[in-house]
Amino acid sequence: MGDIVISLAISADGYASGPGDDLSVMPFDRAFNLHNAALVGRAAALLLGAITFRQMLGYWPHQRDAADPSERAIAQRYADGLPVSVVSDSLGPDDTGVWRDQTTVVPRDDVRTEVERLRGLDGDVVVFGSTTLVRHLLREGLADVVHLLVGAGLVAGDRPALADTAATALRLQDVRRFDGADSVLLSYAVVPA
């Protein structure tokens, strides 16, 4: 049985995107791809919100020949059929593109049932980005691990990544620095209420 693992890349001032939801200003460095490749490599499935799903679907299918080996590994894992559950009341099977055969669209009201199903898989279920979904998972006590990859930069975004999140106790599991990168990975276990 696996954990529900939230992974958020945030700026040092706590934002997951810059003003106007601009991701290009985020202080991502090589740690971003190294961390994501490690998570994807051992994931049993992904659980995503609709916005993050659309962004990933528009990006990853075109990265199988990327210069960065971490990006190639991530793209290949998706191409090999890593299961994806996307929480959405607006997406349908026709919106899942080349990931149609590996994607399950889950209505928002069925998140708890889907998380219970995903917990039964052999391996962790990773939630990338998807801040609306992350807030819901934390509010409902459905997350087990939180990774915060803190980038070295202030972006002064429009909304903090974890705004409106329920108070949640966390226990520090690890702090990691990456060679040649200024980002820091903070890994926490969620303390059950």
* Percent in strands: 25-35%
If you compute it from the alpha carbons, what radius of gyration comes out, rounded to the nearest whole angstrom? Answer: 16 Å
Reported by name, the CATH topology is Dihydrofolate Reductase, subunit A
Mean pLDDT: 94
Q: Helix proportion of residues, in percent?
A: 25-40%
The largest β sheet comes out as: 8 strands, mixed
Top-tier CATH class: Alpha Beta
What global shape is seen?
globular
CATH superfamily caption: Dihydrofolate Reductase, subunit A
Helix and strand element order:
EHEHHEEHEHEEE
**Total helical elements:** 5
* Secondary-structure content class: alpha/beta
Strand arrangement in the largest pleated sheet: 4-3-2-5-1-6-8-7
How many β-strand stretches? 8
Number of domains: 1
Instruction: Name the CATH architecture.
Output: 3-Layer(aba) Sandwich
Rounded to the nearest angstrom, the distance between the terminal CA atoms is 20 Å
Low-confidence region ranges: none
Written overview of the protein:
The mean pLDDT is 94. By secondary structure, this protein is an alpha/beta fold. It is built from 5 helices and 8 strands. The two termini are 20 Å apart. Helix content is 27%, strand content 26%. The protein has an 8-stranded mixed sheet with strand order 4-3-2-5-1-6-8-7, with helices on both faces. It has helices at residues 30-42, 50-59, 69-79, 111-119, 131-139, and strands at 4-11, 43-49, 84-87, 103-106, 124-128, 145-151, 170-177, 184-190. It has a single domain (4-190), classed as Dihydrofolate Reductase, subunit A. This is Bacterial bifunctional deaminase-reductase C-terminal domain-containing protein. Residues 4-176 form the Bacterial bifunctional deaminase-reductase C-terminal domain. InterPro entries: DHFR-like_dom_sf, RibDG_C. It holds the Pfam family RibD_C.
